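During the no-cost extension, the postdoctoral fellow (Dr. R.K.) reprocessed legacy sequence entries with the updated structure-token encoder. One reprocessed record is reproduced below for audit purposes.
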Amino acid sequence: MAMSGTYVTDVPLKGSAEKHYKRWRSENHLAPDAIGHLIQGVTVHEGDWDSHGTIKIWNYTRDGKEEVLKERIEIDDENMAVTINGLDGHVMELLKVYVTTFHFIPESEDGCVCKITMIWEKRTEDSPEPIEFMKFVEKMIADMDDHILQNQE
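Re-encoded structure tokens follow.
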């Protein structure tokens, strides 16, 4: 098994790239209402909702277990991309490096693709590869689409 790697996938979305980007860039506080079956809370630890470098704490449920992630966000408005850098929490118990980028690419007036790139490095050789975290992130992005569509009209 590899000690490090990169996962990349495309998630087709029906909502606009702009609305999806805005939701993941600066409207994380809406996640519990939109996808509460996955995300139960998001709080700002340092900074504010709309700033590059803000540190947030996410409370989420993965595989039926409550978990926490402390992360620092990087914002790229020009490319409509948000990067999450893991700092602490459950995923960081297994990984030394956890960096996930959501890049929203317009495909039509009302649809887009979210290219998810996850860069990771395991803490130990015995740690599993984080494919389950990638599946969780894909589900988060896909499930948010329904909420975006409800509010797009």
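The chain has a mean pLDDT of 94. The longest helix spans residues 131-152. The remaining legacy entries will be reprocessed before the final report is submitted.
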